[in-house]
């Protein structure tokens, strides 16, 4: 399935590693293909190290101000 946006960029990324868990916080910007509007989102992802591989166990993105 094609993505409905282009020109995805990430900014202000912060990574915290706490033993076998990593928390990632950041901001992304992108352009919607349908109407060309620029959008922004704030995101948080949580990863857990399982048998020496980092696996995403949670992810959330929201529009600022919501």
From TrEMBL:
Organism of origin: Kribbella steppae
The protein's name: DUF4440 domain-containing protein
One protein family per Pfam: DUF4440
DUF4440 domain location: 4-55
């Amino acid at each position: 399935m094609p993505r409905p946006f282009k020109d995805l960029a990430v900014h202000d990324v912060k990574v915290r590693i706490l033993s076998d868990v990593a928390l990632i916080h950041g901001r992304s910007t992108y352009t919607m293909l349908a109407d060309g509007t620029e959008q922004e989102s704030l995101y948080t992802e949580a990863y857990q190290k399982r048998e020496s591989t980092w696996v995403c166990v949670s992810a959330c993105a929201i529009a600022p101000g919501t």
